[in-house]
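queue> holo job accepted (protoporphyrin IX containing FE)
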Amino acid sequence: THSAPDAAPDTHSAPDAAPELFTWEFATDPYPAYAWLREHSPVHRTTLPSGVEAWLVTRYADARQALADTRLSKNPAHHAGSANAKGKTGIPGERKAELMTHLLNIDPPDHTRLRRLVSKAFTPRRVAEFAPRVQELTDSLIDGFAEKGEADLIHDFAFPLPIYAICDLLGVPREDQDDFRDWAGMMIRHGGGPRGGVARSVKKMRGYLAELIHRKRENPGDDLISGLIRASDHGEHLSENEAAAMAFILLFAGFETTVNLIGNGTYALLRNPSQRERLERSLAAGESELLATGIEELLRYDGPVELATWRYATEPVTLGGQDIAAGDPVLVVLAAADRDPDRFQNADTLDLARSDNQHLGYGHGIHYCLGAPLARLEGQVALATLLRRLPDLRLAAEPADLRWRGGLIMRGLRTLPVEFGPG
Ligand code: HEM
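queue> job finished
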């Protein structure tokens, strides 16, 4: 497969007629539809599968502006239809009031206060200290399937890596981490599907977190939850509920996103062999630059977060020439903005060395991804180690047969079957 040409850019041109959104085909490859929207209806009113009406923002310039616009609130109370809108963010636990007060649902000044409390745990230096553990986890997961000659890289690799990493960061003891893995698995497997098992898993996780916070208060460690408790004990105004909500949002924001970075990223490399070879040569030479720019490019090209989380106009707003009424939900389509040819040259081509790459894959403005340094670390270690240890890694399915997980916000594969020489 190494000599095969790179996949043609997925999008040649926008379709002629208004595309149907949220179909199965759209989930497989939404980029042609986004190209049409950027060109013909850049701020587009649509009815979501849930029945809720919202505006989709698809051009890069509008998207960046919207993400930083203080007239767009994160607080769902501003939604004109909030009384009957259900499950809006796709994060199952969000309907549980106790876990509502998290970073992605609040505005300043509460947002500023809570974000300041937790941001110490995510400085590049703190995260770098975590690198040996991420490498160890990565190697032990690969050890688990290296002899078999085949694997599902989502189930066997992309899925467990971030959950163990976040558990370590939060301070969940190793012996409890497999429970976490099961609950989280339930939540992402059924995201957007039947809710029964999800509700049970959310409940279990919430109960566990409450108990863990209790235990850490008695017996603090050098972990994030202990840090949050210390901060609240020193009068920084963090309630126990807020601490639980914080742990929960870290798990949610940091888990499926990283699964998708590893999954979508590996998939893009497997479909673009010349780019992959270039990266392999660079890694073999002991360089790290192409790996670093490459991860950013994979985030731009087919990133984990397709739509930024919900925003609501607090007053009438005009965006990209379109009037938006107070109370209307606004969804910024990061995946569309990051393929905008007005911002990126050859926007539909994967170019791991791309240098002018201010993509919106981590968002923009005050809600910019808090976990970006950790995500970069995990993505870099995971992809570099996979390529090094399984040099003849190849896709074991036709791209058309791969299934993408449903759900509005995230974009990721359900399975990624691969083959490789064992050993
Ligand atoms: C926010 C992307 C990994 C924690 C965000 C946002 C995006 C994003 C787009 C902003 C959403 C919005 O404005 O609506 C990603 C991607 C990741 C990733 C692509 C992986 C490749 C992580 C990790 C963590 C994390 C590993 C932590 C363990 C957060 C938190 C927020 C956030 C707490 C909310 C920040 C705030 O509201 O102030 N992320 N994320 N993320 N992310 Fe990430």
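queue> The CA atoms of residues 116 and 140 lie 34 Å apart.
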